[in-house]
Design brief:
Elements (H helix, E strand, L loop, with lengths): L1 H16 L6 E4 L8 E9 L2 E10 L15 E10 L2 E8 L4 E10 L4 E8 L2 E10 L2
Length: 131
């Protein structure tokens, strides 16, 4: 019994130690309105999802009445090898969902994002890791 408990504890610790580099909280680039957000990326099923945890204005003040706060804006994000990912990203300022690509750069402290919809592509900018 003691061996089983120790084995279970080790398995939990090993899972924490092997978190995917995309997991964490990311500061988005400033949007067309001068706003930015903090998006928490975490596993959801076999892929990754990202939830907009907080929105800020151009001065860094919290947008208390943001209608997209708590909304999932990343889904079906999966590793395509190396530091690259593909999935869907919703852009609140344009009210559009893009087939997106993301790439971890600068020692996994930045996330370069881009997306396309109906053949029109948009640079989603470089997101900074917050934690």
């Amino acid at each position: 019994m003691k061996t089983w408990i120790l084995g279970g504890a080790f398995a939990l610790l090993a899972g924490v130690a092997h978190a995917d580099p995309i997991e964490g909280t990311w500061k988005t680039r400033t949007d067309d309105n001068g706003h930015y957000g903090h998006v928490q990326v975490a596993p959801c099923g076999k892929f990754f999802c990202g939830t907009l945890m907080q929105s800020y204005d151009s001065s860094g003040n919290v947008l208390a009445n943001s209608p997209t706060r708590g909304r999932q804006i990343i889904w079906d994000m999966r590793s395509t090898g190396g530091s690259s990912y593909k999935g869907k990203i919703y852009s609140p300022d344009r009210d559009k969902t893009y087939n997106s690509e993301a790439e971890l750069v600068s020692g996994n402290s930045k996330l370069k994002v881009k997306g396309c919809m109906l053949g029109i592509c948009r640079d989603g900018g470089t997101w900074q890791r917050v934690k």
